[in-house]
Every structure is written in structure tokens, then in C-alpha cells.
Amino acid sequence: SGNYYNQGEIRKQELEQSCFVLGIPASDVTVIDHRDLPDNPAVEWDTQLLATIVLKHIEAKNINLVVTFDAGGVSGHANHISLYTAVRYKCCCFEIFILFLFVGCHVLVLESVNLFRKYISFLDVPISCLLPRDALFILTEEETEQAKRAMWCHRSQLLWFRHLYVLCSRYLVVNSLRLL
């Protein structure tokens, strides 16, 4: 629920506002508030517990595409890395393999890039185009501005480095992904 600084309720509202900016209805937003999955950049979540929660959500919502972090978690955040580990864990298990194979659910993993590439904004587009990947998303100028407006909704999280992120991050312009 994003409660690291005891701001869980505020951050839930900010998430809904951000999703509204992106055209995602509140009914499609699920916040998981589980005592064993604390919002903490230093805590690795239990892989099996998280994998079970994710799988139940995939099945309940009939989801056919999951986009998650890679092993670097984009920012090195332990919770982000835990999501990747849980999805990867379930992908290696027989039950999720059957789900992905027969129900048609696929997993795309967002590529973590080095610090230089992370903060060169649109200048990373030619680099990303040249490197191997399974999917590449390049946002239009309008989409980039929409993404920035969505990011600004997360006021409680806008520390100095996140301002830099919103202004200069390649992730608001280009995203490279690979199939898991």
C-alpha cells in the first residue's frame, strides 16, 4: 500500500489520481495491503507468498499480459526485485506454466539500464533501438507529457531525485522489455 512513511492512505489516493490521468478506471486498480509485504526498500518479500497473490490476481481478473520489473528492479528497490522474483518463480512452476501456455498470459520484463542511460531521456531512443529486446515502446510527445502528469500525482513521493527522474528519465520516453 506504499506505507513506508506511514502515508499508505495518501499514496493510495495518489495512485488512483495517477491512473485517472492515464485513463485507467479506479475499478481496475488493486492495492494489496498485506502485513507480510511491507513497503520498504530494504525488505525482500516472501517469494512464494507474493507469487501466490499475483497468480490469484491473474486468474481472478483474467489477465493476459503481466509487465514487471527485471532482476535489477529499475532502481534497485528490494520490493521491485521481489515482484520480478515472484513472477519468475511462478513462471518456473508447473501451474503457472499451464496458465501462461493455455490461457495466453505472457510476461514482459522492463529492462533496468545503467545510470547514464536512465537519465538521458529521449537521447536513449537510438541506443534502445540498436540493442536486442523483445518489445520496445517509444512514447509520443503527448504520451510523455501524460506520463509526467501521472507521475506528478504522486506528490508524497516527489523527493529531489524523483523530480530529476520525471524531468530526465528515459523511462518516460522509451521502455525496452523482454519476454520472461
TrEMBL record:
- Species whose genome carries this gene: Menura novaehollandiae
Q: Name one GO cellular component term.
A: endoplasmic reticulum
- Write down the superkingdom of origin: Eukaryota
| Enzyme Commission identifier(s) | 3.5.1.89
Protein name per UniProt: N-acetylglucosaminylphosphatidylinositol deacetylase
Single GO MF annotation? N-acetylglucosaminylphosphatidylinositol deacetylase activity
Keywords on record? Membrane, Transmembrane, Transmembrane helix
Q: Say which family it is in.
A: Belongs to the PIGL family.
